[in-house]
């Protein structure tokens, strides 16, 4: 087997997966600063800054390992392959890329073309065999891995709606769903053939997020597994759908939540038994996924003590469940992260980031939380103590999101300036 120098991806056509344990270790420990476009300022530049007492001090530090800068506009979509060191990004330049994360600099594997507006949703399937992109042009495009990820073959395209808002894969079956700005959700199968299964109409506002609910137990007598999709909308409703019949298992409307909230994002508990949904006004509701029972409603603003904050800073931008502790992390545009005890639903601690927090995610199997912010940084926290363990710098504008790889040892960011940085 011959390998591409630098990427570790096999060159021949044999469809055998690259050994990720070997591939993820080929990034040199020492950064090549001469090849990095955003490395520290030179000594001469520092002397010039010091000479001008009135000059604004600018932090140009950069502790990333390497970068990907093929995009010419903001990066909205980022995801990592579950088995090999590959990243998918898509952005406001109407283009996506699959590229290597284990080489310096990263190398493009496939350019994902065919969209006419920003790529905002999608990623790799849980088994790594499929890749889907969804755009503001209403298109959903499907690629399949060839040569175990070293090539991606375009397979099909769907254009049923005006604007795609999210894409979600089923965790164990070859199915995916996407939501749209007109309130609809669509479900398709990938195998044994590409096929439309359901179109779901039940929201009067934009369908803002959706997730498949894994079956609680195997189907009896070897029957078909029950498939359910949960969707939320900015009209304040939550719906559980039975797939492929398209029948609503339950629907929760604003009066049942005791207030009207435009739901904007969600996070499924690792067990699949409950879901946390966040609203644009700073509220979070915890709902049992099987019956639709409302377990708790949390006022994040009240927990922060900042109930007088401007309306535009109240939105819940990130939600993350911890696998090893009974806590839920919730981030706000206001620049704070609240850590809630999931037994009492009282806030255990508040982490002050300063600027809008765009995403939060726990490193699997740990109590360490990663957050990204519009101040251009990504930070790792210990939620038990509230201690900041590490901060990644190097962006010149906001970090819109990130993806974890290598069990959380690698963090890859997506920024507003169109550059992705890799931190180890």
TrEMBL record:
<dbReference type="GO" id="GO:0051082">
    <property type="term" value="F:unfolded protein binding"/>
</dbReference>
<feature type="repeat" description="WD">
    <location>
        <begin position="112"/>
        <end position="143"/>
    </location>
</feature>
<dbReference type="InterPro" id="IPR001680">
    <property type="entry name" value="WD40_rpt"/>
</dbReference>
<dbReference type="Pfam" id="PF00400">
    <property type="entry name" value="WD40"/>
</dbReference>
<dbReference type="GO" id="GO:0005829">
    <property type="term" value="C:cytosol"/>
</dbReference>
<dbReference type="InterPro" id="IPR002372">
    <property type="entry name" value="PQQ_rpt_dom"/>
</dbReference>
<dbReference type="Pfam" id="PF13360">
    <property type="entry name" value="PQQ_2"/>
</dbReference>
<feature type="repeat" description="WD">
    <location>
        <begin position="357"/>
        <end position="391"/>
    </location>
</feature>
<dbReference type="InterPro" id="IPR051179">
    <property type="entry name" value="WD_repeat_multifunction"/>
</dbReference>
<feature type="compositionally biased region" description="Acidic residues">
    <location>
        <begin position="42"/>
        <end position="51"/>
    </location>
</feature>
<feature type="domain" description="Pyrrolo-quinoline quinone repeat">
    <location>
        <begin position="226"/>
        <end position="391"/>
    </location>
</feature>
<dbReference type="InterPro" id="IPR015943">
    <property type="entry name" value="WD40/YVTN_repeat-like_dom_sf"/>
</dbReference>
<dbReference type="GO" id="GO:0000027">
    <property type="term" value="P:ribosomal large subunit assembly"/>
</dbReference>
<dbReference type="InterPro" id="IPR036322">
    <property type="entry name" value="WD40_repeat_dom_sf"/>
</dbReference>
<keyword id="KW-0677">Repeat</keyword>
<keyword id="KW-0853">WD repeat</keyword>
<feature type="repeat" description="WD">
    <location>
        <begin position="68"/>
        <end position="99"/>
    </location>
</feature>
<feature type="region of interest" description="Disordered">
    <location>
        <begin position="1"/>
        <end position="51"/>
    </location>
</feature>
<protein>
    <recommendedName>
        <fullName>Pyrrolo-quinoline quinone repeat domain-containing protein</fullName>
    </recommendedName>
</protein>
């Amino acid at each position: 087997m011959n390998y591409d120098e630098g990427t570790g991806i096999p060159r021949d056509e044999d469809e055998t997966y690259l050994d990720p344990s070997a591939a993820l270790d080929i990034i040199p420990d020492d950064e090549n600063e001469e090849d990095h476009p955003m490395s520290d300022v030179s000594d001469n530049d520092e002397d010039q800054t010091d000479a001008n007492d009135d000059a604004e001090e600018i932090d140009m530090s950069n502790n990333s390992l390497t970068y990907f800068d093929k995009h010419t506009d903001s990066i909205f979509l980022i995801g990592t392959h579950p088995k090999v060191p590959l990243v998918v990004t898509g952005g406001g330049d109407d283009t996506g890329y699959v590229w290597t994360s284990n080489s310096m600099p990263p190398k493009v594997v496939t350019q994902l073309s065919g969209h006419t507006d920003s790529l905002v949703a999608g990623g790799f399937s849980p088994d790594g065999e499929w890749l889907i992109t969804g755009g503001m042009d209403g298109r959903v495009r499907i690629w399949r891995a060839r040569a175990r990820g070293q090539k991606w073959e375009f397979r099909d395209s769907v254009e049923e709606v005006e604007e795609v808002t999210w894409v979600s894969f089923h965790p164990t079956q070859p199915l995916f769903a996407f939501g749209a700005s007109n309130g609809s959700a669509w479900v398709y199968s990938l195998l044994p053939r590409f096929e439309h299964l359901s179109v779901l109409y039940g929201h009067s506002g934009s369908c803002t997020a959706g997730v498949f609910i894994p079956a609680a137990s195997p189907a009896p007598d070897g029957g078909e597994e029950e498939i359910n999709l949960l969707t939320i909308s900015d009209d304040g409703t939550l719906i559980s759908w039975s797939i492929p019949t398209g029948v609503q298992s339950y629907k929760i409307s604003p009066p049942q939540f005791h207030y009207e909230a435009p739901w904007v994002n969600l996070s499924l508990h690792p067990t699949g038994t409950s879901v946390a949904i966040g609203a644009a006004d700073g509220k979070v509701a915890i709902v049992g996924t099987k019956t639709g029972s409302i377990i708790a409603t949390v006022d994040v603003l009240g927990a922060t003590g900042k109930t007088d904050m401007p309306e535009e800073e109240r939105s819940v931008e990130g939600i993350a469940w911890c696998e090893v502790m009974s806590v839920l992390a919730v981030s706000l545009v206001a620049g704070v992260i609240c850590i809630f005890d999931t037994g009492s639903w009282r806030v255990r601690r508040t982490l002050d980031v300063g600027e809008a927090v765009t995403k939060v995610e726990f490193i699997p199997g740990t109590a360490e939380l990663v957050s990204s912010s519009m101040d251009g940084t990504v930070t790792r926290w210990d939620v038990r103590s509230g201690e900041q363990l590490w901060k990644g710098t190097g962006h010149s504008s906001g970090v819109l999101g990130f993806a974890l790889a290598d069990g959380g040892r690698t963090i890859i960011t997506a920024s507003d300036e169109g550059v992705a940085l890799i931190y180890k």
